Amino acid sequence: MSQPTVLAPRSWAEPAKHYLAVLENSWYQHLTLFQDIVAHRTTDFWTANGARYLNVPITTGSISSPMGRGSDSTPVKVELEGVSTYLADSMQFMLEFGCRLSPGGAYYLMPSFRGEQADQTHLCQFFHSEAEIAGGLDDVIRVVEDYLRHLAAGLLEHGRQAVLDVAGGVEHLEELAGSAALPRVAFEEAVARLRHDPAFVREMGPQCRTLTRAGERELMEQFGGYVWVTHMDHLSVPFYQAFDPDDPTKALSADLLFGIGETVGSGERHANAAELERALDLHEVSADEYHWYMTMKDRHPLRTSGFGLGVERFLLWVMKHDDIRDLALLLRFNGQQILP
After folding, report:
1. Torsion over CA of 268, 272, 273 and 277, rounded to 10 degrees?
2. Does residue 339 form part of some domain?
């Protein structure tokens, strides 16, 4: 490892002048290269795996991400021509829809909008690399690992010097590109490993617990930098995650922790309308905006699993950086009008 030669200008702290720093600082030239590599390698990967790209809208009446009691995300509500709607927090539902059209799976790279304020680990608007495939949780975990290896190999092939410039080394990419299956730990075992410490495990209510950032870091340390946390409390995840048939209080879900913490979220979906309706009741979510979703699962039942990779969080790990606000080419902070 050597010292990085290209450093983040921290220009997000002066939003009005940020665009000039983007034009004048090589940090952002490197960032655009990495974004381009991720986009091309994503298309290469899914084309080779038989999945199809979906063009989907960015507005929705069926929000997904904020629907778990353990979620720290809020939706962005807007009004268009007098009609209330939401900017997409995720279009994962559309990918499930797409799996009914494309047996090999469906994917996209698109922006996501969140209502919380930006901080060191969150952006108000960020890019999601999301996909849905036919199959179960184990299938999607294997696909995610293959995809990450493909991205790491692409960055080594096409952006090695740029990574050296900003990160001071490429060993982390070489390790991931050549990795075997990544370690997994069930949520209950993770809680035991963390000694039920409230600094590491946050409890929102009975059978509704999540890991804190400190808990994620502790687990990553225990497992050497990468670990899947699987089978979370169902009440702590969005309602659309399938129930674990061996323990319905758990979900067939998995978060991959590396870099800043949770960087990939994945899970198996309810295969039919009856299970979905059961989950909506459990999570106390009104079915009004999800009748179409239940009808799709009733008329076209299909076992699918999917994931979302936060592109900026992944690149934060690539660049060995510690503040995600330095990974926005053009800033968008909620409650502020920032040009351009």
Report:
1. -40
2. no
Digit-by-digit pLDDT tens for the chain (340 residues) are: 799 999 999 999 999 999 999 999 999 999 999 999 999 999 999 999 999 999 999 999 998 865 455 456 789 999 999 999 999 999 999 999 999 999 999 999 999 999 999 999 999 999 999 999 999 999 999 999 999 999 999 999 999 999 999 999 999 999 999 999 999 999 999 999 999 999 999 999 999 999 999 999 999 999 999 999 999 999 999 999 999 999 999 999 999 999 999 999 999 999 999 999 999 999 999 999 999 999 999 999 999 999 999 999 999 999 999 999 999 999 999 999 999 9
Q: What are phi and psi of 221, to 5 degrees?
A: -65, -40
143 three-class SS: helix
How many domains are there within the chain?
1
Query: What is the CATH classification number for the domain harbouring 115?
Result: 3.30.930.10
Flag whether 79 is in a domain.
Answer: yes
Other C-beta atoms within 10 Å of 339: how many? 9
180 found inside a domain = yes
